[in-house]
Specification:
By secondary structure, the chain is mostly helical. It has helices at 2-23, 31-51, 57-70, 77-113.
Length: 118
């Protein structure tokens, strides 16, 4: 699960950075506000790469997905991109857990079928 989720989060890191560049074009937003919010979101993406397997890591990832969709109020394209990344996040968590379970099953089978060297 960690690999799939981390890949999604790294993709989001770049999308948030590019969205910050687009948001800078809005005359109503200060550059400081745009890069403070974008920087915090980008930093959160990187931190979540390490926390995704810890308790609450997936929930924080969902919070980031909601924030990404909500950023569509500032950069309208982010509604679409946020929805895409939310779907990718769901797939990463869902299929990542299935892969982890299959790996555990295969490891257990390998350990139980190996004869003990006495």
């Amino acid at each position: 699960m960690r690999t799939l989720c981390s890949s999604t989060l790294i993709g989001e890191f770049f999308v948030i950075g590019f969205a910050g560049l687009v948001a800078m074009k809005d005359p109503d937003l200060s550059m400081t506000a745009v890069w403070t919010v974008s920087g915090i979101a980008m930093f959160l993406c990187l931190v979540l790469c390490g926390l995704v397997t810890r308790p609450g890591g997936v929930a924080l990832g969902w919070a980031l997905q909601i924030a990404l969709i909500a950023s569509g109020f500032i950069v309208p394209t982010m509604y679409f991109l946020g929805a895409i990344f939310a779907a990718l996040w769901w797939a990463s968590v869902h299929y990542g857990r299935k892969v982890d379970a299959a790996k555990a099953r295969f490891a257990a089978q390998a350990n139980s079928s190996t004869p003990d060297a006495a």
